[in-house]
Amino acid sequence: MGYCDKIKELLTNPNTSFYDEGVPLQDVSSIISELQRCFFSSSEEHFGSNLSQDIFSIARHVAQIGAAPKFFDFIERERHNLDDVAEELMAKNLSREQEDDAVRQEFNRSDRYWQVLYISYELFKSQYNACVEFRLHARRHGIAPENHRIKSIINSPPPLEPSDELKQQVKDRDRGCLCCGGTSSRSLEVDHIVPKYFGGINILDNLQTLCSKCNQVKGTNHINFRDCQSDLTMPPGTPLEFEMPGGAKAGDPEAWEQFLRRTINFFYRCGAVHSITIGKRGESFYNWQIHLNAGNDPRWLEPNLKELLDRIIWAKETAGYSAPNSLIVHTPDIPEVRCNKK
């Protein structure tokens, strides 16, 4: 009950101290201690992990997403044991192709949560292969898998950084920052979608190209900008307020496109923006259009469009440039949302 009551309190009374992407645990330790005192006064309420770290992680999730994290009860955990899957499929002596089909079918089962636990089939298959190799190694040495240890493999830490070759492969694939669209090679970095802090590994499907600014804001959050549709089930709240183009850049449509892409993609926590139309003259100069990928509800932005347009107008006019008259948000499957200058 401690976790449920704590999440209910955080949803009812949001704490902005946890909203910053880079806030360290020690800076909010007094708040964590108070939450622990209020909701986990009995040691029987919690076991098996670091309670302070758990409270911190949940509080950050609620503050930044605006929704409770998903929890899995013990019976669901028992159904999601990859060792059991490996044992079952190994017993069938399948061909490599048949085995891959069977593993893919398991990953896509509607009564399992594999796609929540693993960001891609490739990551799921990689973990499955590790389970198979572990059991094969145990059999070769005549040891029951549950009593087996492979010190040279299990205890060897994975490389902290992807190889230069893998980084280049990621950058060649993404062709720029997947969040804001920036292409300056000096600022591009390779980011772990599932952060290394939470066990993210150096495989192609767990890596994405971000500019240094977007990478810094993402921090240790799990945001896949290669995914074009948001996983959120409700609007996350107010968009992050990024620095707007100033000076000569306030007159540059590309600078404003990067600003809007960064603002909106972080709002939806994915690569929600398909394209942005900001002209240098004519209709599209005064009426900026934001085209979202299908599956991202433009109505989530409606309560925030007026403030966003006002900020853009202020920045443009302060720098001596004409400002847009409207912001229009489109998506293929839902009617557009529009905000006009007053």
Keywords:
14 helices, two-stranded antiparallel sheet, single chain, alpha+beta, 43% helix, 342 residues, four-stranded mixed sheet
Q: Span between N and C termini?
A: 49 Å
Strands, total number: 6
The description of the largest β-sheet is: 4 strands, mixed
Q: Label the overall shape.
A: globular
**Quaternary structure classification:** single chain
How many domain modules? 4
- Rg over CA atoms, rounded to whole Å, is 24 Å
Task: Outline the structure in words.
The protein has 342 residues and is α+β, with helices and mostly antiparallel strands. It has 4 domains: 2-65; 78-154, no CATH class; 160-226, no CATH class; 230-342, no CATH class. Helix content is 43%, strand content 10%. The protein contains 14 helices and 6 strands. The strands form 2 sheets. It has a 4-stranded mixed beta sheet. A two-stranded antiparallel ribbon has the order 1-2. Helix 14 (302-318) links the parallel strand 4 (287-292) and strand 5 (326-331). Helix 1 packs parallel to helix 3 (51-65), helix 2 crosses helix 3 (51-65) and helix 5 (82-90) crosses helix 8. The radius of gyration is 24 Å and the shape is globular. Residues 43-49 and 150-156 have low confidence and may be disordered.
